Predict the 3D structure of the following.
Amino acid sequence: MTVQSVLELFQQYGLPMMAAVFFCEYLNLPGFPAGVIMPAVGVLIGQSELNLVLAIGVSIAAGLAGSLVIYAISYFGGAPLLTRIFGKSMKFHKIMNRCHAYLEKGRGKGLFVCRLIPVLRTIVSIPAGLVRMPLHEYVVWSAAGIAVWNSVLISCGYFFSEAFLNGELFSFL
């Protein structure tokens, strides 16, 4: 998925499309990389009449909804379901152990930190569900982390939209 294809989709379908893409991105589905999608949304907002604050709010709500789906699957399905889905993937278990360590050490604050680290930010819903983190705590700390992550990436696209579109942003490389 390229920045141009993302921009075309968002221009055609607007905020509902944006919400659907963010929901899928937080479900950790392949093909929805945040590093492309979120700045592309910012570029679109910068080039249109869409509202930056509204778009960020929609992204947070959709991201939280996607995260809650994974949390619920892990909470109610538990380790047996995850083992069936991911098997004995060493990479997956290594990432899970790292998230689990953050959660054990800092509970909600650990969840917040994980939300700011690429890869861990979408995977952390799984160990949070497995350790049965209280829903209220999960929602508050997840929303805070998602808000920071999404706001930074979308705002970068928004404030540097001209540079992105003109290819000037990385011209020094």
